[in-house]
User: What shape does this take?
Amino acid sequence: MDQLLLTPERAAEVLAVGRTKLHELLRTGALESVRIGAARRIPAAALTAYVERLRREEAADGDAYIHRVVS
Assistant: This one.
């Protein structure tokens, strides 16, 4: 079975960002996390959802840019 929950350090590694950026994403709510006792863990599905949201936002920004250039 694939790992369902990742430590913040592992999640930062998977996203290829630093620990500071990962903690910022958690603090702002941009990245979902759960607590197990005192430990903070990030669901693997939350990483996928975050990247997909970034891709949708980037595509929408690109579409808006094209619309401004063409208009």
